[in-house]
């Protein structure tokens, strides 16, 4: 069966009139997992080359587009803590009560915000290559420009700085995986070199940036200001998977986040990179459903 036949896409109208688009994968009666996609990305982000794997594992994977990405309307002036209310409306619409949440890279703040707001309704949290909030001094990756570091605590200015930085990504987003292949470590180059993975990434980046790069600049800027809640209050078990050779989000950032969480299992995968999930998806989902 073609992959597109295994993806169910739809949208809802939120209470404030915005459209929220989402996709579902796997078993409609399976254990729900909310996907908090990366940045840039979209509802088309999945972590398996064969989407039928979700059905085999008994997973109902639900991935909404964040505001401004994909087919979701923008939300001017939004904050990280606005996201759980969108999620609440979506899950109530879908009839989902208890769920796990899983994030890739820039989605970590949003997954943890859901855990903070929903409490026991969230059974577990998974973070793939995520970074901590700006509550502690960051060990900056070398690729972050100095002008970005200088404006991190001034979100409006940072958004303005980031827009021209990210503008080239909006020209040909389908080529982003090839660019990543050139600049990331050997493990990531191997993973992205697989045609199915490259196609997944090209599709989700292209869809995420269908409206340009303004949402991406805003999304990244939000991650560098206080998220609106202390991660030390997260009571659920949080699993972090991080490659020791992740050149996109260095493993030290994952270790800082792990130290801030009361109940965290850190999985530090030697020699792996930012897209390790494509080789470890079954382990990741099994941990969230235990």
The gist of it:
This protein is α/β, with parallel strands linked by helices and 290 residues long. It is built from 11 helices and 8 strands.
What this model shows, in words?
The structure is a single chain. The protein contains eleven helices and eight strands. By secondary structure, it is an alpha/beta fold. The chain has one domain: Alpha/Beta hydrolase fold, catalytic domain (Rossmann fold), CATH 3.40.50.1820. The model has no long low-confidence stretch (mean pLDDT 90).
Number of helices: 11
CATH architecture: 3-Layer(aba) Sandwich
For CATH, the homologous superfamily is named as Alpha/Beta hydrolase fold, catalytic domain
Number of domains: 1
Average predicted local confidence, pLDDT: 90
Number of strands: 8
Weakly predicted, low-confidence segments: none
Range of strand content: 15-25%
Through-space gap between termini: 29 Å
Helix content: 25-40%
> What sequence of helices (H) and strands (E) makes up the elements?
EEEHEHEHEHHHHHHEHEH
Measured on Cα atoms, how large is the radius of gyration? 17 Å
- Which structural class fits the helix and strand makeup? alpha/beta
